Amino acid sequence: MGMRLGSVALAVMALALAPVVATSAAAAPILASDLILKSNTANLQYSWRVPPEVGVEPPLFEVMRGKAEAGFAAGLAQANADAASAKKAGFPVHQYSDLRYWEVAADTTRLLALTGQLYGYTGGAHGNTGYDSVIWDRKTKTAISLPSLFSDRAKARAIIEPLVCKALAAEQKERRNGQKMSPEFEKCPPLAQATLVPYGGMTPVAHSLRVIFAPYVAGPYAEGSYELTIGWPEAIKPLVKPEFREDLFGVMQ
Question: What is the pTM (predicted TM-score) of this model?
Answer without folding.
Answer: 0.85
